[in-house]
Specification:
Elements lengths: L14 H11 L1 E9 L5 E10 L4 E9 L9 H10 L10 E4 L4 E6 L13 H20 L14 H17 L7 H12 L9 E3 L8 E4 L2 E5 L6 E3 L1 H14 L5 H12 L5 H24 L7 H23 L17 H15 L6 H39 L6 H13 L5 H23 L12
Antiparallel strand pairs: 1-2, 2-3, 3-5, 4-5, 6-9, 7-8
Amino acid sequence: MSATRREGTATGLDRALVDWMADAVRGRIVSCDRRPGGGRREAWFVDAEAADGTRLELFLRYDRGEGDESFTLHDEARFFRALQDTPVPVPRIHAVHPVEQAILAERVPGRAWFSELRGEERRVRVAREFMGILAALHAVDPGRLAPGAADADLRDLVHAEIDRWEALYRASGSPADPLVELGLGWVRANVPDASGPVVIVQGDTGPGNFLYEDGRVTAVLDWELAHLGDPHDDLAWVTLRAVQEPFTHIPDRLADYAAASGRTLDPDRIRYYRVLAGLRILILAHRGAGRPDPLGEVGNGLVFTTLHRRLFVEALADATGTALESPAPLEPSPGADDRLFDAAIAQIREIIVPRSEDPFVVLRGKGLARILKYLRESGRLADAKRARELDDLGTVLGSRPADVAAGQAGLSAALRAGAVPMAAALPVLHRWVVRETQVCLPAMGRLADSHYDPLA
């Protein structure tokens, strides 16, 4: 069948890709509309018409990235297909592109942002249903993905997962990160001593990565980090995502999962996997810094990277019982260009965003404002931040480094060698991420003071 494209709606999609979608549904493509969000993986609403005139509402996920085969849409499609016709609601796949990283699926109705769901009774009902679906996922035979997977030793799978992420980190080409070095050493030395159960783990699961409508969960989305592992891994992700997208009372939701799954939960294993989940996020951000995309969601990236660096330190402190004290705030110095930053931010807020009808443009407009807020505050706090960091690095390294970059490189090497104990390193890194948060504070809103909920 031939493919047609409404002028302006599919701009940026290659004609061959549009033709592939048309062939996949044996019809013609009527329109393509790029949606906000999705990070480097583009999200498109696609409307098609089958040969018999039936209207088809489709969803395209597309990754234009080149040379990165770490987390592919082809891998993600394996999980979607393995979960078809199970109690886990996932979109039905129409086609997976044989060469391009593209998946064409049915478009499931629903909203993703849990914060938009109003009414505590409805929020609890949807959250409880999701925890039941998570229990159902962990009951699916992992042999649907890999024969014999259920018989694997969980400890071996966790070590393999750590190996995979460390390899991604080492290959990034970006300067070493002391936080990642500390985290890698700790998660490797503290793998829970449990042989099972081995389940399908979604990874990055929880509020924001499922759809709901009319008080029910309609689909579970985003299987980019899916793997075989420990059910506590997914529970840790739920608690992590609940920081940025509040998800009712976490202890109650964990109790819902325990009742639905029939499993007794181990809070210390959840704490371990919170560290591992945060470490994955840090490594993804580290890789992104080495291959920046100027057209990506840079503003949101600043905010969420800052948030997750602090959450990682807090999770590690919780798991290790390390006491942390926050440093005194940095004293800002007014910048010569503050008025220009203020003018740009005001015009984005008052003129550009309100007059933009395209939700994708609105999203990027707000992202630009976050970048400008960050740059303004970074300039105002740069001297004070540099002095504090050099002092801290001197304390943990034994001598004050010539500059911050050299000090961070030295600390990274010392942590990788095991030469700096957790009790000495973590308070220094905590002060570091608190200062990073102060720099990003005007762009972060409530996230600047968002923390993990207690597990009990």
